[in-house]
Amino acid sequence: MSRGVWHHAAVxxxxxxxxxxxxxxxVLEFRDAFADFLKLHVPNGEPGKLGSGLAVGVAPAVWLRxxxxxxxxxxxxxxxxxxxxxxxxxxxxxxxxVSVQGLRGAVDPITNWLTVSRPKPLLEPxxxxxxxxxxxxxxxxxxLEAEASRPPTIGAEAMHPTxxxxxxxxxxDGHYRQAVAAACESLVSVVKARTGRRDIPDxxxxxxxxxxxDPQPGMPRLRWPGNSTDQDVIxxxxxxxxxxxxxxMTVRNSTAHGIGExxxxxxxxxxxxxxxxxxxxxxxxxxxxRSAE
Length: 293
Known about the structure:
There is one protein chain. By secondary structure, the chain is mainly α. Helix content is 58%, strand content 5%. It has helices spanning 3-14, 17-39, 70-87, 90-94, 125-149, 161-172, 176-195, 202-209, 231-257, 264-283; strands at residues 41-43, 62-64, 98-99, 106-107, 221-223, 285-287. A two-stranded antiparallel sheet has the order 1-2. The protein has a two-stranded antiparallel sheet with strand order 3-4. Strands 5-6 form a two-stranded antiparallel ribbon. The radius of gyration is 33 Å and the shape is rod-shaped.
């Protein structure tokens, strides 16, 4: 992974509180497994124990206890190794790498945990335990920061059923332009079915069903519910008269006739516009005049 790609991934990770807390749990699991691994050993220099008096930094930092079976230590070692693999991503996010005298660069305390049981260990057990504690706290802090700075979000699946029902399959396959186009066509089909107007182009359909003229036989209107003299009702009817055709000419036409894919965010914003119009349509009354028989 190039440095630029890695940096982008790290920035995105810092924005995801769920991921950060999951990683904190992974570090805690590593710390617990490592602590259990240490219980099978005695520290170098502990009075009256094997290894007492050997030079710190030359001899292993811990010695295997005489009463521990090879099977037990292998099981403990495997548990720590697996946990370390899950927790390793915490090091670059939290800066827990440890500087060691005589070595160029810093040492990752998670991936280098096993050196405590080998000659010339890079780290002491306390270094690894302290680093894990810091990483857990730091990740929890980063999660809180991410939650505080994250804007409210809404998923595409929360859109009006008419919109999301038409867009769902294409959206989940990553075909965002086609998903929006399908949602537009679905919304138009609903209006045609409700008004019976299948005889005019789509833009004219929106203009006519929200026209301020009285309905005529075969030409029903959609009206915002309420007293037609109420200022709020007048305002909604006037707004829908302009908004609905505007959506057709901007969202639908630019989506259907555009070239290339559009991004997820732009597509989500277009679905949101369609969803709002669909919800307003649900609230409108159908006003029609039946032909005299």
